[in-house]
Amino acid sequence: MGWIDALVLGLLQGLTEFLPISSSGHLVLAQEALGVHEPGAALEIAVHVGTLLSVLVYYRRDIIDIARDVVCRGPAARLGWMVVAGTIPAVLVGLFLKDDIERALDSPRFAAAGLLVTGTFLLLTRLARRRPSEPGFAYAIIVGCAQSVAILPGISRSGSTIGTGLLLGDDPVRAARFSFLLSIPAILGAAVLMFADGGMSGGPPAGMLIVAGAVSFASGLASIAFLIKLLGRGGLAWFGPYCLLVGAVAWYVLR
Prior knowledge:
It is built from twelve helices and no strands. With 255 residues, the chain is mostly helical. Helix 1 packs across helix 3 and helix 7 runs antiparallel to helix 12. The relative contact order is 0.22.
């Protein structure tokens, strides 16, 4: 794997982790196109840490409020416990279906099919209607179940979680905030598992890892800001046709 491959994978991870177009699906297809079938745990950890830092920076005020209020029993503590509750389904899926998920992650055609499912779901979010109610723990669990499905390649994590929030009647920006806060333990958990499986040995040079992580961080920060602005102008359905097109082309080419 060369520098260009690392830069492309870092850019894709940053852009697609938060845009509702599936980072896992795009990375599987990109690795197939580049001929990089084993980028190595070190690179995957680097780009995941980059996207983790981007969401930590963008939502730093919310994270500080949650941390403070959990200790002081303030109002933001409720949001923090909702994130904990929403994380449980993905943890259970990861523990009991780990081997099946790993096999799916190696299948480009599975990723293509997942993108078709994602595109269809994003178009269905046009049916969403807002309801003037405050999301509770039932909301967190349902959105968390949507996140657990997005462990599969081609199924967008942000698309699934934000889209589910919209269909439950939540405000788009608030649904996005909960989705991205929910991504923190998910991304951190993925990085820890990759480190446990492959560690940092035998990977690309340290400079390549730093550059790939930095590209992932910058593109992740930009994609969060872009999506938040776009949510106020029509929601997630804008990305539906793109996912359907990429999924259909990939399915045809990989047959």
